[in-house]
Design goal:
The chain is of the alpha+beta class. The chain is built from seven helices and 19 strands.
């Protein structure tokens, strides 16, 4: 190798280590340095933040933004803990809406679902065969029901999104199975969310596990970027191929929210134009957290015990 070739090969030092063109990029993107931050470090071209915005419309979050989302996430977790204390047979779903709305406003936040594209309530409450987007109303929760509650507070302009599926009373074997599988699907999806992996790795892990348990993964609704807005790029499918999709890099904030059916994946929307239900009336469960890709791996910004 000539002196000129060596000069081009070794471009900078980070933490006392020389980074070469073909080394993994120090930003954690999983790409080679020459295909990632090399031009920015040499004073040419765009930074990774600029590239991800231009190429994928993904807005990476800085430290201040992350702190804002984390505070909204802490409120989301408090909301779910509050709901857990009140879920029981005999409760009307609109009572959950009132509980969520009042606690959100009391803490200086805004419930994002309220009036979002015409949604009439402050929270989504989905029971049994309802997959998502159930509108609270006069429906009574019965013994053995599974109840998904999906909350999204906006605090000081930042959004955080989370949901859990709860048992009302004593669950039957089918309810116990689908909730257990859905919870494990979220855990497995989160283990794949780290720098250098791809969005497809998350869906692959979820789909592989769900189908190994005889369950199915909903295709029509996916995870999504969040933080500055309710729904941002990227979309995060809960099915797919390993090694496909956008490379995960530090600063990405998005939800992982697998919706898992005990029967087939097919669904339809009710006459209210919101509530999604399983075609075969099988049970459906979901767990959701808002996650941040860090230099080291992953941080949940809505951390509740799985």
């Amino acid at each position: 190798m000539t002196g000129e070739e060596r000069r081009k090969e070794v471009l900078l030092k980070r933490d006392g280590r020389r980074v070469r063109r073909n080394d993994p990029c120090p930003c954690g993107s999983g790409l080679k340095y020459k295909k990632c931050c090399m031009s920015a470090d040499s004073g040419q071209g765009k930074s990774i933040e600029e590239r991800y915005l231009k190429e994928h419309r993904i807005r990476l979050k800085g430290k201040g933004d992350v702190e804002g989302i984390r505070k909204a996430g802490n409120l989301a977790v408090e909301l779910l803990l509050l709901v857990e204390k009140h879920i029981r047979p005999g409760v009307i779903t609109d009572e959950i809406n009132t509980l969520i709305h009042e606690f959100t406003v009391k803490n200086g936040a805004i419930p994002a679902p309220l009036n979002y594209r015409g949604f009439p309530k402050s929270v989504c409450v989905s029971i049994n065969e309802e997959i998502c987007h159930g509108i609270p109303g006069n429906r009574v929760i019965h013994e053995g029901d599974i109840v998904n509650v999906d909350v999204t507070p906006i605090l000081n302009g930042y959004y955080a999104d989370a949901s859990k599926t709860f048992f009302a009373g004593e669950p039957g074997p089918d309810a116990l199975k689908i909730v257990t599988v859905a919870r494990e699907c979220l855990k497995r999806g989160m283990t794949m969310a780290r720098p250098g992996n791809r969005i497809g790795d998350i869906g692959w892990a979820i789909q592989t596990y769900a189908e190994s348990q005889g369950c199915s993964v909903v295709r029509e609704f996916v995870g999504h970027g969040v933080g500055f807005d309710f729904h941002e790029p990227p979309q995060v499918p809960h099915y797919g191929q390993k090694g496909k999709g956008v490379v995960l890099v530090p600063g990405m904030v998005f939800t992982i929210e697998p919706m898992i059916n005990l029967g087939k994946k097919d669904l339809h929307i009710l006459a209210d134009n919101w509530t999604a239900v399983t075609d075969d009336h099988s049970l459906s469960a979901q767990f959701e957290q808002t996650v941040l890709i860090t230099e080291e791996g992953l941080e949940s910004l809505t951390p509740f015990d799985l």
